[in-house]
């Protein structure tokens, strides 16, 4: 199927002047419609001012008593890495010490650099690897930096730009999986080898190869676990696909040994000599079957043939999922999604038995782990819901004592609105949860402009979050916001995801359309007032639904989307998603992909809503050609379509606040025009 003629394949080029000219013309046409709207400029200014409001919570990572934060403002559009003490942070002080200035680094090098991350050496945290990407893409270089000296380390560790995986092992060595040009890469464009790189005083660092992935692997990664009670452990993860993998232990002689875990299992932590393992498939081990969706404590000695036993910490349940796991000095903390709301459980080892206990945290909204300082009992987490601003909390897991370090200011008057969980019925009878945020006095006559957001893939859950900008610029203008928790996501564990995986992908489209129909049946909205939005896999979702059920929607915001499902494996990281979607090289799977591939399902005589497609020239994960070709094909067949392609930002929008404000303002103006005017 992938060999079908593609008249717009030329738009996949990233440097052809004719392609760049075509993109510029599309941008000009869209900006003439949106940026020229009288609402755009003041909206963009308001959003930018909100982003730069110093009362916003400065999230941090704590290392050796310092709180480190990445900050952008009008004086530092690329950002600074800065630090403060806990006492100053508690006092609400705005006095920060700058330790890394990305604007200055970019100017000095003459590069379009954005910060992709700062990796502290855990046991010597003023030594860091600074990851810098050009244009905000996934590929980044990594150079060693001394935060105390505020300078690059002379003869320090330096690695070229690539989709590398690099992890500190100790202050004088790192585990490196090379993804730069010239390195042997997998079909997906990711690393295939693991090397130990040890520091040498003359800068000629010593390289030793530890592992080579089998042919056909998707990628490798390696890192060190520091267990305060059981020393250190070096581990390699060799992924055969997006979900299947093998783990390999690196021993003291730098030899590797595979661990007998199932292919669809994730090691979430290592504590007291035990792996904390999340299962996405059943695992039969020594006569006991552990079910998919379980969280297990698995002693390393037991896996290597010694004593010990596997203990189940969390049993699977129909409306339960494991969102994330963190370990403190002595406890395992599990963030559970219970009917699409968060709650925390701690597990402590008493003798040979793990014992659970509840933690005194809010349970009516969403918790996200924010930081866990190494070798401490401290865990920082954020808590929010649709209408309550985010709070940042510092919890002592051992004692249960906690404090609210910061509270985000309210962006709008939430008293006028209500957030409620509702349920739609999918065509196969399954109940699909969704959340509605609307005015308390909403009249159910179908007249409310409504934005429906969804994702539905990769076992990623859609959870409530504070709708700060949408509260002020959408809810207060009479709109409603809806978040759909469709299959393909991770709201209810691996089975919820696998129900829409591979050739079953259209299940997520059916779920999303069922939510849209439920909104209309409830009287909230109507087809002329309903818009849909999604990004990446969510872009595939909304585009597919637009083509399947165009009569349901008036507006479609399709961001950094995946749209050509017959060539996606040939573009950038696309081959890494074969486990999620299926392989177009397989005739049976290709037929299933072609049946919903948005790029191939456009009909010349249909009536589609005017859709807004967004992408980035520096998106090196989902190729910008997806959005470009989709717009070209729509226009070729007589349908109007809008495209905005930014020069920077990459797949995750890693750009300055100015561009972020511009992008959100355009989306809002588009929604105003389509649903409110």
Automatic annotation (TrEMBL):
GO CC term (a single one): cytosol
The keyword Protease is assigned to this record: yes
Domain Peptidase S9 prolyl oligopeptidase catalytic: 472-675
GO molecular-function term, one example from the UniProt record: serine-type endopeptidase activity
Record keyword Hydrolase present: yes
InterPro entries xrefs: AB_hydrolase_fold (IPR029058), Pept_S9A_N (IPR023302), Peptidase_S9_cat (IPR001375), Peptidase_S9A (IPR002470), Prolyl_oligopep/macrocyclase (IPR051167)
Keywords: Hydrolase, Protease, Serine protease
Pfam families (alphabetical): Peptidase_S9, Peptidase_S9_N
Highest rank taxon of the organism: Bacteria
GO terms (BP aspect): proteolysis
Domain Peptidase S9A N-terminal: 5-408
Name the UniProt record assigns to this protein: Prolyl oligopeptidase
Source species of the chain: Aquitalea magnusonii
């Amino acid at each position: 199927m992938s060999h079908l003629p593609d008249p717009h394949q030329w738009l996949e080029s990233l440097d052809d002047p004719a392609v760049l000219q075509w993109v510029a013309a599309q941008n000009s046409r869209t900006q003439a419609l949106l940026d020229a709207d009288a609402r755009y400029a003041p909206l963009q200014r308001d959003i930018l001012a909100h982003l730069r409001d110093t009362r916003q919570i400065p999230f941090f990572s704590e290392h050796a008593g310092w709180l480190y934060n990445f900050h952008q403002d009008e004086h530092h559009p690329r950002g600074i890495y800065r630090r403060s003490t806990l006492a100053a942070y508690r006092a609400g002080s705005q006095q920060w010490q700058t330790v890394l200035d990305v604007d200055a680094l970019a100017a000095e090098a003459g590069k379009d650099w954005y910060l992709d991350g700062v990796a502290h050496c855990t046991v010597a945290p003023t030594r860091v690897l600074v990851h810098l990407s050009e244009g905000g893409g996934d590929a980044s270089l990594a150079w060693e930096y001394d935060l105390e000296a505020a300078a690059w380390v002379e003869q320090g560790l330096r690695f070229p730009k690539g989709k590398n995986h690099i992890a500190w092992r100790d202050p004088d060595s790192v585990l490196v999986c090379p993804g730069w040009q010239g390195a042997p890469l997998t079909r997906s464009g990711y690393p295939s080898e693991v090397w130990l790189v040890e520091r040498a005083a003359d800068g000629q660092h010593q390289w030793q190869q530890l592992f080579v992935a089998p042919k056909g692997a998707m990628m490798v990664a390696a890192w060190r676990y520091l267990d305060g009670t059981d020393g250190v452990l070096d581990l390699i993860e060799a992924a055969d696909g997006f979900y299947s993998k093998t783990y390999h232990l690196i021993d003291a002689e730098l030899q590797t040994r595979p661990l007998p875990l199932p292919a669809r299992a994730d090691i979430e932590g290592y504590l007291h000599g035990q792996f904390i393992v999340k299962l996405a498939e059943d695992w039969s081990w020594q006569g006991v079957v552990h079910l998919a969706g379980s969280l297990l404590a698995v002693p390393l000695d037991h896996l290597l043939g010694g004593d010990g036993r596997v203990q189940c910490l969390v049993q699977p349940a129909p409306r339960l999922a494991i969102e994330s796991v963190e370990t403190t000095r002595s406890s395992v903390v599990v963030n559970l999604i219970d009917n699409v709301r968060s709650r925390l459980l701690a597990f402590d080892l008493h003798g040979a038995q793990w014992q659970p206990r509840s933690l005194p945290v809010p349970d009516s909204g969403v918790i996200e782990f924010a930081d866990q300082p190494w070798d401490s009992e401290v865990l920082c987490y954020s808590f929010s819901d649709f209408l309550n601003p985010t709070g940042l909390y510092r919890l002592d897991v051992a004692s249960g004592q906690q404090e609210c370090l910061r509270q985000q200011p309210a962006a709008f008057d939430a008293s006028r609105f209500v957030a409620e969980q509702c349920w739609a019925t999918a065509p196969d009878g399954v109940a699909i949860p969704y959340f509605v945020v609307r005015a308390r006095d909403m009249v159910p006559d179908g007249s409310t402009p409504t934005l429906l957001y969804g994702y539905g893939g990769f076992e990623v859950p859609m959870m409530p979050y504070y709708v700060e900008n949408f509260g002020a610029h959408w809810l207060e203008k009479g709109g409603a916001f809806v978040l759909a928790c469709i299959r393909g996501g991770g709201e209810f564990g691996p089975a919820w995801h696998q129900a829409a995986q591979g050739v079953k992908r259209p299940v997520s489209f059916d779920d999303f359309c069922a939510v849209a129909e439920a909104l209309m049946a409830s009287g909230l909205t109507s087809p002329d007032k309903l818009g849909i939005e999604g990004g990446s896999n969510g872009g595939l979702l909304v585009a597919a639904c637009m083509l399947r059920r165009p009569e349901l929607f008036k507006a479609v915001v399709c961001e950094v989307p995946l749209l050509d499902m017959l060539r996606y494996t040939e573009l950038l990281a696309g081959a890494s998603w074969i486990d999620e979607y299926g392989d177009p090289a397989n005739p049976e799977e290709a037929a299933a992909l072609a049946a919903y591939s948005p790029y191939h399902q456009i009909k010349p005589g249909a009536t589609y809503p005017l859709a807004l497609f967004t992408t980035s020239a520096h998106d090196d994960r989902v190729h910008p050609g997806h959005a470009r070709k989709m717009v070209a094909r729509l226009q070729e067949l007589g349908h109007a379509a809008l495209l905005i392609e930014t020069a920077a930002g990459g797949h995750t929008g890693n750009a300055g606040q100015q561009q972020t404000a511009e992008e959100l303002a355009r989306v809002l103006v588009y929604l105003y025009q389509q649903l409110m005017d």
